[in-house]
Give the backbone structure.
Amino acid sequence: MEFTGPDNTSFTVYSKSGCPSCTTVKKFIKDKHFFVTEINCDEYLLEDKDGFLKFIEELAGISHKTFPMVFYKGKFVGGLIDTIDLIDKILLLFDENF
């Protein structure tokens, strides 16, 4: 199975159905006016869970097995809290420069 890689220009959220943190992180990113690419991983998990987790580990450089799995400009961010922290830092830097 071939897995979709993260977008190199915006946020990419690997999510699964029924995941409250996935829903929250996608809404948070959109509410802060960032573009987000959403990749639902239900099929990946059903057909090749081990392969998908290995794919994420290779991209992220660490083992990360919980959802959401968030990337920004192709680089691994982490989960919900990590993403909120990153966006807060980006917006703070933006405000300081204007």
